[in-house]
Amino acid sequence: MPRIVRAVTLIWIALYGVAQAEDRPVIIELFTSQGCSSCPPVDAMVAELAKRDDVIPLALHVDYWDYIGWKDVFAQPGFTRRQKAYARAAHTRSIYTPQIVVGGVDHVVGYRPMDVAQLIEAHRDAASPVSLSIVRDGDDVVITANSTETFAEDAVLQVVRYIPERVVDIGRGENAGRTLRYTNIVDAWKAVARWDGAAPLVVTLEADGEHPVVAIVQKSGPGQILAAARVR
Q1: Which residues pair with 166 in a beta bridge?
Q2: Nearest CA among 124, 120, 119, 142 for reference residue 21
Q3: C-alpha 28: how far from chain center
Q4: Which of 141, 106, 151 is nearest to 126 (CA)?
Q5: Nearest to residue 162, comparing CAs of 76, 232, 89, 72?
Q6: Which CATH number covers residue 120?
Q7: Can you say whether the dihedral through the CA atoms of 40, 180, 59, 64 is positive or negative?
Q8: Taking burial as the number of CB atoms within 10 A of a residue's CB, which of 8, 17, 172, 210 is the most buried?
Q9: What is the pTM of this model?
Q10: 41: cis peptide before it, omega within 30°?
Q11: Nearest in space to 32 (alpha carbons), one of 51, 12, 47
Q12: Domain count of the fold of the chain
């Protein structure tokens, strides 16, 4: 396939994907801010990725641009801490917005849809010993995880809740005067269990509200995401 055609094809796949079952979804974490003028194109890319079933994009709004003059209404200090933890795991001191982390290990800074497309393909095709499911049971969610191997170091089960979409009028800062649409905005991210994979893990948790909930099994570090599942 000619290089230009392949590049266009990969970008199309990154944004629109292909019809697939949601059995091995790839986690995309976007570290973004309403105070970042470089972020809207990547925010828009995440909105396109959110239409797919084989990708779960999660927007984590950080708070370190709030001083510029606009306080991001979705920002949480915990998301900034998570981004810094990824930086430490990658042996770097620098953090950026926009920054995407694919599958817990691969970092993409800025608007680079072709790179994101290639990483989604790679992570979607990668083998994992973990199978994971999440279902609603009344006001609770029940998460079940199984592994074909025991881990040398405990993995972490995390539960994430997100708001599918919000529109915000930006009053000040680098994006002053713009009306921006945000997608898959994380409003809660909690580690709920450590797991060595030796026996099946079953966790029941209260799920407030009707927003989608995502379960993630991830190596410590934070490191590689071994499995993810979502209930809408």
Answers
A1: 182
A2: 124
A3: 4
A4: 106
A5: 232
A6: 3.40.30.10
A7: positive
A8: 17
A9: 0.89
A10: no
A11: 47
A12: 1
C-alpha 3/C-alpha 203 separation (Å) is 47
Task: Beginning with the edge strand found earlier in the chain, give each strand of the sheet holding 140-147 in spatial order.
Answer: 130-137, 140-147, 201-206
Residue 173 token pair: 């800062």
| Alpha-carbon distances of 97 from 28, 34, 117, 141, rounded to whole Å | 14, 10, 19, 32
Other CB atoms within 10 A of residue 49 CB: 26
Tokens 């970008």 identify what position?
11
Domain residue limits at 49:
3-231
For every one of its 232 residues, what pLDDT tens digit does the chain have, with 9 covering 90 and above?
A: 444 444 444 455 555 544 344 578 999 999 999 999 999 999 999 999 999 999 999 999 999 999 888 999 999 999 999 999 999 999 998 999 999 999 999 999 999 999 999 999 999 999 999 999 999 999 999 999 999 999 999 999 999 999 999 999 999 999 999 999 999 999 999 999 999 999 999 999 998 888 999 999 999 999 999 999 999 9
Q: Across the strands, what pairs with 157? A: 193, 217
DSSP the chain: --HHHHHHHHHHHHHH-----TTSPEEEEEEE-TT-TTSHHHHHHHHHHTT-SSEEEEEEE-STTGGGS---TT--HHHHHHHHHHHHHTT-----SSEEEETTTEEEESS-HHHHHHHHHHHHH---SEEEEEEEETTEEEEEEEESS--SS-EEEEEEEEEEEEEEE--SSTTTT-EEEEEEEEEEEEEEEEE-SSS-EEEEEE--SSS-EEEEEEETTT--EEEEEEE-
